[in-house]
Amino acid sequence: MATAAESILLTSASPGPATFKGGRYLVGCIGSNYGTVALQGLLPDGSTYATVPDVGGNAVSFSANGWKTVDLAPGQYKLSISSATGVSVRASSLPG
């Protein structure tokens, strides 16, 4: 049964955290200049964030414009931006 789609935009100016409902997401990233942009999730201690893995087990991290598919638990997520500018990341839930 499909659930309502969710689309969350995180940017250089507003990197989060944001609350995700959980499920499978297509994550797209674009930037003006690149260093590294990573999607990080809040760990169970309630204060530490760590980079989340994609469905292939690789970090959801971008050093160029691109896409990744990721399964996320419900919770808080944010961007970690290092030396990148003009970053926009959109996470859109996929039907399940």
Label this structure with key terms.
single chain, 96 residues, mainly beta, Jelly Rolls, 5-stranded antiparallel sheet, 4-stranded antiparallel sheet, 9 strands, 51% strand, globular
What does this protein structure show overall?
By secondary structure, the protein is an all-beta fold. The protein has a single domain, classed as Sandwich (Jelly Rolls). Helix content is 0%, strand content 51%. It has no helices and nine strands. The strands form two sheets. Strands 2, 4, 5, 6 and 8 form a five-stranded antiparallel β-sheet that branches. The chain has a four-stranded antiparallel β-sheet with strand order 1-9-3-7, with no helix packed on it. A hairpin with a 6-residue loop joins strand 4 and strand 5. The protein is globular. The relative contact order is 0.42. The mean pLDDT is 93.
What's a concise summary of this model?
With 96 residues, this protein is mostly beta strands.
Topology:
Elements: E1 7-11, E2 18-20, E3 23-30, E4 36-42, E5 49-51, E6 61-62, E7 66-72, E8 75-82, E9 88-93
Antiparallel strand pairs: 1-9, 2-8, 3-7, 3-9, 4-5, 4-6, 4-8
